[in-house]
Amino acid sequence: MRYLTVLVRPAETGAFHPLGRALSEDPSLTREAIHHVELLDDGTVLLFAEGSGDRDRYEEIMADSPAVLDYLVSGERQWMAVSQFEATELAERILDRQRESDVVVETPIYFTEDGALRITYLGSDPAFQSLFEDVAADAGVAFEVVETGEYDPEQASFTRLLTARQREVLDAAVAVGYYDNPRTATHEDVAERVGIAPTTAGEHLRKIEARVFGALVR
């Protein structure tokens, strides 16, 4: 079996759903990952997602959205949320195509900093080709291949867990000695090498560690 990791973006609207746009554009919230997404028989979407930031603001957006039928949140600054909402035509088309294809989606699906979805599919090259042709024919979706190769379920591919920016920060942290024993670098050193603020470097490193350690014990 092979894997195909892609970045998927809405080509025109900037979001797959108005609800997603509202959450993405709020500076107090970060959409981290999707752990399960399913198109139900009634045309609504069931979503199990991970986020961080202002939980009260998240609940306010969900409560105000006319598309949301129900939701439940657990956690404070880092939280998990289950929601059911009405699908847009684009979201329904994407999820229906995924359901009918011969590929399996490896979860979690990660959000990138620019709003794309980083998705890893499992299957065969012909199945990937068929999926790619279907998506390429859909004017509403932009599809970018990141990497592909043989899938080894016994060996975690940590690079697939991280966004490009997170991999850049991780490379910098290793290079300056942040993970040496004893540690010989600080968030400031990592930030200087990457060209970002120390607080931003620290936030990236915390997210990197959470994803990698989570994969190790999953």
From TrEMBL:
Q: Which InterPro entries match?
A: HTH_bacterioopsin (IPR007050), HVO_0513_N (IPR056493), WH-like_DNA-bd_sf (IPR036388)
Q: Keyword annotations for this protein?
A: Transcription, Transcription regulation
* Entry-linked Pfam families: HTH_10, HVO_0513_N
Q: Which residue ranges does the record assign to the HVO-0513-like N-terminal domain?
A: 17-151
Outline the extent of the HTH bat-type domain: 162-213
Recorded superkingdom: Archaea
By what name is this protein known? Answer: HTH DNA binding domain-containing protein
